[in-house]
Amino acid sequence: MQPSSHRHHLAGAVTPNAWHDLPDDLQLTLSREALRRAAETLADHAELLAGEMDAGTLLDQGGPDALRLFAAVVRATNRDGFATMGNA
C-alpha cells in the first residue's frame, strides 16, 4: 500500500500536504495573494523608511522622495500587474 499524500483532519476533511497536490487554480490564487502581500509589505517599508528620514532618525541623502516613488511604483504595479488574464 502506498502512503497517502493527504492528511486527515477533524470532521474527515482532507488537506493536501504538498504544494503540487493543490489544484492549479488554487496555486495561482495563493501565488497572486502572496505577491500582492509582498508588494504591499515592500511599499509599506519604503514609506516607513521615508518617514524615519523625514523625522531625522535616519540620515537623509535624498532618500525619502526616492522611497516614496518606489512605494508608488510597487503599489501601481501590484494593482494592475497581477490581474487575471484568462485561464492558466
Q: How would you characterize this protein structure?
A:
This protein has 88 residues and is mostly helical. The chain has a domain at 23-81. Helix content is 58%, strand content 7%. The protein is built from two helices and two strands; from the N terminus they run ββαα. The chain has helices at residues 24-55, 63-81; strands at 6-8, 14-16. A two-stranded antiparallel sheet has the order 1-2. A hairpin with a 5-residue loop joins β1 and β2. The two termini are 34 Å apart. Residues 84-88 have low confidence and may be disordered.
Give a brief description.
This protein has 88 residues and is mainly α. It has helices at 24-55, 63-81, and strands at residues 6-8, 14-16.
Number of strand elements: 2
Major beta-sheet overview: 2 strands, antiparallel
The side-by-side strand order for the widest beta sheet comes to: 1-2
Strand content: 5-15%
